[in-house]
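Hypothesis: this fold can be encoded by more than one sequence.
Test: take the structure tokens below, design a sequence, compare later.
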């Protein structure tokens, strides 16, 4: 029986001097050992270590979102993939739950486990093989470590996240998009092979040719069917530098039309960014950032392609500096203290036909943009939907969509109102043919919401995969999906 909680069933408590929100179904309703407080018993032999000190448990009991806090019993620092197999099998036997955690960049408790075991993937971060076309790497490695292995060979993944400090396994579990997605889709669209540990404790290698259903249900699968321990990723030639130009717009339609033009060009610009910055005493600032890798296309050709903007400023940066372009913003937030506030953020894939109305509605609702000051408004960038091929990363059915990234930092007392704003946005986006990006943000979904998010056919497929690969439902309870 599925046990769901009302969207507004928020429970407040003070933790570490700030209000924390706890939301989700009650595992005890299904017989889970949530009251266990003593040490785990009859543990298997481990190559690594099972850690229970208070500082470690405190660290993994919250994430970068700083909204959900769930107290786990222990943290596994695996010394091998076999340790993960042993712990997942142990969880099945003793009816506890497990989840994999990397750098803790989840935003709404996705990698937390109440009274269970969190597996810290960071101890499994080896680069196993690099060639001109592929890299094999363990799931706990960060994208910075991927680049350290590939850039000496002048190779790079086609799409990268906008921060390189998150782990490969965490990114592939949620999907992964970036400023090259208008050309190449999501990061999960460029995975050739995975090694995983399924919910029933089986170690498996999967790909489009080998156990394809497991492969598809793990990529962007939020850890519901298996835990990723190794990935084989596509590589392409890396640029030496990036040329970026900023264009400012007075009118929303010109801003959107130029983005559409770039996104529809088959050999278009390599970087596409859009940002909407509300102004207190006037119209919003609309900025499109266009980029060319390795300087192969001159700025004049970009100016001809982008007709509506004005006041462009050109700058050249190394490819590595380009990839680390968000670090100054993070440091600025840390210096001001706002980085340590909760992050009730949200991200959506907005249908092209809804783009103008979405912007109008967002700007008209003060709560929608509250807490975005550090990030200078919200990102809004066009992308064709065809390159996005993974079933668990649903996109609008129109040929073109827009990614809306509403990233916030706000005081704890404002979090309930901002979560409600996220729910309103998720409902309106879905009602207009779009989707939320399930891998990021604080949108408290019930199981019924998840079913609606994926649609009947994909939900039935995921439900069947859950029964096949995690029949005891031990994996990744954080999203509250099953």
């Amino acid at each position: 029986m599925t046990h769901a909680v009302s969207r507004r069933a928020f429970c407040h408590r003070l933790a570490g001097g700030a209000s924390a929100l706890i939301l989700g179904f009650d595992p005890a309703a299904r017989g889970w050992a949530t009251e266990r407080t003593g040490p785990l018993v009859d543990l298997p032999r481990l190559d690594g270590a099972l850690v229970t000190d208070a500082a470690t448990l405190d660290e993994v009991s919250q994430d970068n979102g700083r909204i959900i806090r769930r107290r786990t019993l222990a943290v596994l620092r695996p010394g091998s993939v076999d340790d993960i197999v042993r712990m997942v099998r142990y969880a099945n036997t003793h009816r506890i739950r497990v989840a994999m955690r990397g750098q803790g960049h989840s935003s709404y408790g996705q990698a937390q486990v109440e009274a269970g075991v969190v597996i810290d993937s960071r101890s499994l971060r080896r680069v196993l093989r690099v060639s001109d076309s592929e890299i094999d790497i363990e799931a706990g490695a960060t994208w910075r470590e991927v680049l350290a292995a590939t850039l000496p060979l002048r190779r790079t993944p086609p799409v990268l996240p906008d921060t390189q400090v998150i782990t490969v396994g965490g990114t592939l579990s949620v999907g992964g998009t970036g400023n090259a997605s208008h050309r190449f889709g999501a990061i999960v669209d460029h995975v050739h092979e995975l090694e995983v540990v399924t919910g029933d404790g089986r170690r498996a290698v999967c790909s489009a040719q080998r156990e394809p259903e497991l492969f598809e249900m793990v990529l962007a699968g939020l850890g519901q069917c298996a835990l990723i321990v190794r990935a084989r990723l596509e590589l392409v030639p890396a640029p030496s530098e990036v040329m970026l130009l900023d264009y400012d717009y007075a009118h929303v339609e010109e801003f959107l039309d130029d983005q559409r033009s770039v996104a529809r060009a088959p050999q278009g610009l390599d970087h596409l960014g859009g940002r909407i910055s509300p102004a207190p005493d006037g119209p919003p600032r609309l900025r499109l950032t266009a980029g060319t890798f390795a300087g192969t296309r001159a700025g004049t050709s970009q100016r001809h392609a982008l007709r509506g903007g004005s006041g462009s400023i050109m700058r050249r940066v190394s490819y590595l500096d380009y990839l680390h372009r968000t670090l100054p913003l993070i440091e600025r937030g840390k210096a001001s203290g706002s980085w340590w506030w909760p992050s009730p953020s949200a991200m959506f894939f907005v249908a092209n036909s809804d783009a103008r109305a979405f912007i109008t509605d967002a700007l008209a609702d003060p709560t929608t943009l509250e807490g975005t000051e550090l990030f200078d408004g919200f990102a809004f960038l066009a992308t064709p939907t065809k390159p996005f091929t993974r079933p668990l990363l649903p996109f609008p059915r129109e040929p073109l969509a827009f990614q809306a990234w509403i990233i916030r930092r706000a005081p704890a007392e404002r979090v309930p109102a901002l979560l409600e704003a996220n729910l309103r946005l998720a409902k309106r986006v879905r009602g207009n043919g779009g989707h939320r990006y399930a891998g990021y943000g604080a949108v408290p979904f019930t199981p019924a919401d998840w079913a609606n998010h994926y649609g009947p056919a994909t939900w039935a497929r995921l439900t069947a995969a859950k029964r096949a690969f995690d029949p005891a439902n031990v994996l990744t309870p954080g999203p509250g999906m099953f």
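The first strand starts at residue 11 and ends at 15. The two ends are 9 Å apart (CA to CA).
Hypothesis status: open.
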